[in-house]
Write a structure and sequence with these properties.
235 residues, alpha+beta, 2 domains, 9-stranded antiparallel β-sheet, two-stranded parallel sheet, 8 helices
Length: 235
Amino acid sequence: MKALVKAVSFKHLVIGLCMFAAAGMALALKPTEKIADAEPKIDLEMLIPKQFGDWKIDETIVPLLINPELQAKVDKIYNQTLTRTYVNSRGERIMLSIAYGGDQSDSMAVHKPEVCYPAQGFQILKNTNGTFSTAAGDIPVRRIVAVQGQRIEPITYWTTVGDTVEISRGLKWKLSQLKYGLTGKIPDGLLLRISSIRSDESAAYRAQDDFSRDLLGALTPAGKERIIGHPTPAG
């Protein structure tokens, strides 16, 4: 009987030591260094040109205000935000919104349009994965159609975790996050959203892709890397 008690006690001791060691390892591996603190500071106003290709800022458009509760969440998560409306010679308008955050840990990860738009009274009619082809390679994007009354707004967006584009908070997102965590670093990231008010969503997405390619073509290599990371080579 005493032998059995000793065996059980020893088993509990081993389990306890393993749990303690695991807790210590988790603490030791907890990322503490923000990549954003070691890299050149990003300035969205300077990074994104006000005019490129056939596009220029439409000074007649006043950005929509978001409700104070959502604004508070945005201010907590993001270090910088940029919102502009561009217009081309054909009168096509594209709304560009970029939000940059220096901390892409679980508690501070970017808020997706699927969350932000319904919070502003929109209904999400479609939400599908897509691919945006660039000269540097292909990146995954999300295509959404949001509706509010008579306003139909097709949306294209992507997000980055460090130097990788990830549009889902699923396994790939966690693996990207873990890749940095194992080096003790916290990745930065951004959300880039492009949208237009247009009932023909196919035409809207074509215009959005053309706009995006023109924008990327106007950026420096370092600026382009900030926006799309390292895409998967086409082919």
